[in-house]
Amino acid sequence: MNRRQLMMSTLGGLSAAIPAKVADKILETANPEVGANVDVRRNDARSFPKGFVWGVATSAYQIEGAVKEDGRGVSIWDPFAHTPGKIFDGTNADVAVDHYHRYKEDVQLMKAMGTKAYRFSIAWPRIFPEGRGAVNPKGLDFYNRLVDELLTNGIEPFPSLYHWDLPQTLQDRYGGWESRETALAFADYAGYVTEKLSDRVKRFFTLNEIRTFVDRGHESGILAPVLKLPPARLNQVRHHAILAHGLAVQAIRAKARRGTKVGPAENIVVAVVPIIETPEHIKATEIAMRELNAGYLTAMLEGRYTDAYLKAAGADAPKFTSDDLKAIASPVDFVGINIYTPDYYIHANDAAVGYQSVPFNKSHPRMVSSWHRLGPETLYWGPRLLQKLWNVKDIYITENGCATSDEVAKDTKVYDSDRKTFQSTDFHKLSN
After folding, report:
1. At what angle do helices 231-255 and 210-218 cross, to 10 degrees?
2. Residues 132, 69: Cα–Cα separation, whole Å
3. What amino acid positions are annotated as catalytic residues?
4. Burial class of residue 193 in the structure, from the number of CB atoms within 10 Å of its CB (0-12 exposed, 13-18 middle, 19+ buried)
5. For 201, which DSSP code?
6. Which residue, 199, 211, 192, is CA-closest to 264?
7. How far apart are CA 168 and CA 153, in angstroms?
8. CA distance 7 to 14
9. Euclidean distance between CA atoms 208 and 215, whole angstroms
C-alpha cells in the first residue's frame, strides 16, 4: 500500500449537517465526486438537502506522527501503543502517515477527492504538554498552518478537541478522568484553542466518543489507559467526561469569537432500531434511546440523570452537584453522532421499562470486522430519534461507513462489491 492508498483508507467519516426539518429523510446517494452544499440532480430526482456537508475525518494520533517533535508532550496512547500485545500488528504511531510533516500533500489528496469539509482532532499534548500550565506555541503553530492550508484549498475545518490522547501527566497526577481536575484542565485547553482558531474556524466538536474511551479504557481495559474500574469509579469517570464537555462549551462561549458553534461527537447508543416499524415498537425505541444513553447524551441534553439510571446504579451512582448538571447541559449548537451498525433491535413489551432488545441471530450478516453487523437502517433512525427526543436542530453524521476487506483482484483492481451493496442498501432505506 503506497502513501496515497494509506491516506485514502485512513480518511473516513461523513460530516453531514442535517437540518431538523429534514432529519427524517436524506435524499441522495453519496457521490465522492460531489462537493459540499451542491444540489445534485439525478435521474430519479433525489438530491442532497440544503445544508448537507460532505467530508472526511481523521484523528491526530492515527495520522500525525512526530510524537517527540516541537515540544509535544506524552499522551496515554504513546506507552499504550508501545506495549507488546496492545496493537494487533505491533506497530505504533511514532510516524503513522507522517501528516505532521506532509499535511500539505494530504490536503491536496482531500481536494482531489472533492472534499469540502475535514474533521480532524487537535492533540491536547501538542498544545499543553503537561495537560495544563505552560503553552507550547509550536503545537498551536501546526494547527494554524493546517487550518490555513485547508481554507486556501476550499475545505472547511471541523476540529475535534479531544480524540482520546489525554496528556500522560494528567493521568499520572490526577488519575486522568477519575478526577474533576482533568475536566477543569480540558475546559482551559478548549477555551485557549478556540480563542486562537475561531477567527477562521466556525465549528468545534468537544469530545469524540465519550462512551468508547470511558467504557473501553476504564471498564474493559481494552484501550488506554487500560483500567478495569469497579462500578462506582467507572460512573464517576463517565460523569467527569460529560462534565468536561459542558465546561468546555462554557469556556468556548467565553473565549471564542462570537458566533462560534460547538457540540459533541458521540457514538453512544444511537443505534437502536424498532424491530417492526409500527407505532408501539417505535415508541419503545424512543424510550430505549433515552434510557440506554442516560449516562451520556441524555444527561448532556436534559441536564439530569434519569430516575431509572440512578436507581440502577444505586450506591454506585456518580457524585455530582446541581452546578455540575447545569454545566453538563450547557446549550449546544449541534450534535454529531457516529453510526456504523445497529446496537439493538427494540421490541415493545408490558414490563415497567417498556421495551426489550431482541438478540441477533448468528446468521445476521456482518462486514469483515466481527463487531460490524449489517444494519444500514441505523443511519435513518439515529437522526430521527435524536431530533424527536431532544429537538436537536442540526445533526452531523460525524462517522459512518462499512468495514470491508478491500481485496485486490487478479487484475490488480479492488471491485468493492460489498461496500457498493452496503451503500445501495443504506440509501435505499433512507430515501424511503
Report:
1. 150
2. 19
3. 209, 399
4. buried
5. -
6. 211
7. 35
8. 16
9. 13
pLDDT band at 194 (very low <50, low <70, confident <90, very high): very high
Nearest to 335 by CA among 103, 16, 46: 16
Kindly state the average pLDDT of the residues 242-248. Answer: 98
* pLDDT one-digit tens code per residue, 368-421: 888 888 888 888 999 999 999 999 989 999 998 888 888 899 999 988 888 777
Cell numbers that stand for 160 in this block: 475535534
Is the preceding omega at residue 359 within 30 degrees of 0, hence cis? Answer: no
Angle at 400 between CA 284 and CA 118, to 5 degrees: 135
Helix axes 417-430, 378-390, angle to 10 degrees: 40
What DSSP state is assigned to residue 176?
G
DSSP reduced 3-state for 411: coil
Question: What is the distance in angstroms between the CA of the first residue and the CA of the last residue of the chain?
Answer: 38
Instruction: Report how far residue 210's alpha carbon sits from residue 265's, in angstroms, rounded to the nearest whole number.
Output: 8
- Beta-carbon contacts of 108 under 8 Å, excluding residues fewer than 6 positions away, are 153
The b/e string for 178-192 (b: 16+ C-beta within 10 A; e otherwise) is bbbbbbbbbbbbbbb
C-alpha cell at 212: 468508547
pLDDT digits (tens, 9 = 90+) for 17-44: 444 433 333 323 233 333 344 343 343 4
Q: What amino acid is encoded at 242 in this protein? A: I
Q: How confident is the model at residue 429 (pLDDT cuts 50, 70, 90)?
A: low
Q: What are the counts of helices (DSSP H) followed by strands (DSSP E) for the chain?
A: 16, 11
In the chain the domains, ranked by start, together with CATH numbers, are: 3-401 (3.20.20.80)
Q: Dump the DSSP string for 45-100.
A: ---PPTT----EE--HHHH---TTSTTPPPBTHHHHHTSTTSSTTS--SSSTT-HH
Q: What percent of the chain has pLDDT over 90?
A: 74
Query: Per DSSP, what are the bridge partners of residue 75?
Result: 167
45 vs 207: which has the higher pLDDT: 207
Q: How far apart are CA 216 and CA 225, in angstroms?
A: 9
Backbone angles phi, psi at 325, to 5 degrees: -65, -35
DSSP 8-state symbol, 251: H
Chain mean pLDDT for the chain: 88
Determine the pLDDT at residue 425.
58
For residue 424, is pLDDT > 70? no
C-alpha cell at position 32 = 465522492
Measure Cα distances from 141 to 53, 106, 199, 251, 391 in Å. Answer: 27, 18, 14, 21, 38
